[in-house]
Amino acid sequence: MKISEQCVVSLSWTLKDTLGETLDVLEEPVEFLVGGSDLLDGLEQALIGRSAGEAVQLQLEPEQAFGDYDDTLLFLEPRHLFPGELEAGMGFEGLPAGCNAAAPKDRLYFVSDIYPDHVVMDGNHPLAGIALRISLKVHAVRDATLEEIGRGTLGTGFFRTEVTSLPDDTDTRPTLH
Fold first, then answer.
1. Which has the closest alpha carbon to 133: 56, 10, 18?
2. Is the dihedral of CA 4, 27, 165, 119 positive or negative?
């Protein structure tokens, strides 16, 4: 079976920057919905027409991947609004109540720096501004179920930086750590 819109593809990959530094390795295959929100458009385009067993090499510029780095998505927030257990790299679905009201609410934010009185939160994807070299291996291809197509995702969140639903009645957002 060849990869087409609205099928499920099982992939593994090695993700590097343009200097050759390894950024991520997915050794065990993971399923993604082609034609949904699971994969970047450039990845999907490179996969269309491929079959199980094929390898794909491609380079994506920042605008084709996670976008250019946007410094307007950096927010300096009061430390007391965050949990006591806080580490750099920890992710939050939206910012906690009491943080900058102008910050987009439908984003994932990552703790960039921690100071005694403040926390720097970054709404950029961790790979924003980076050109990527991707070595993909297609392990399997199957038809997507109607339920999978209806959801538009298999729930794999590596390529998403927006939150699809946040609890309306909660003052604190769950962490992703």
1. 18
2. negative
How far CA 23 is from CA of 19, 129, 132, in Å, comes to 11, 13, 9
Strands (E), 71-168: 74-78, 91-93, 108-114, 118-122, 132-143
What would the pLDDT profile of 92-140 be if each residue is shown by its tens digit? 999 999 999 999 988 899 999 999 999 999 999 889 999 999 999 999 9
Query: Is beta strand 132-143 parallel, antiparallel or unpaired with respect to 118-122?
Result: unpaired
Please state, in angstroms and as integers, the Cα–Cα distance from residue 145 to each residue in 57, 171, 172, following that order.
Answer: 28, 36, 35
Q: Identify residue 45 by its one-letter amino acid code.
A: Q
Reference 46, options 71, 22, 23, 64; nearest CA is 64
Residue 62 phi, psi dihedral angles, 5° rounding:
-50, -40
- What is the Cα–Cα distance from 90 to 72, expressed in whole angstroms? 19
Domains annotated for the chain, with CATH where assigned, are 7-67+128-151 (3.10.50.40), 71-122 (2.40.10)
CA distances from 26 to 10, 31, 143 (A): 11, 11, 22
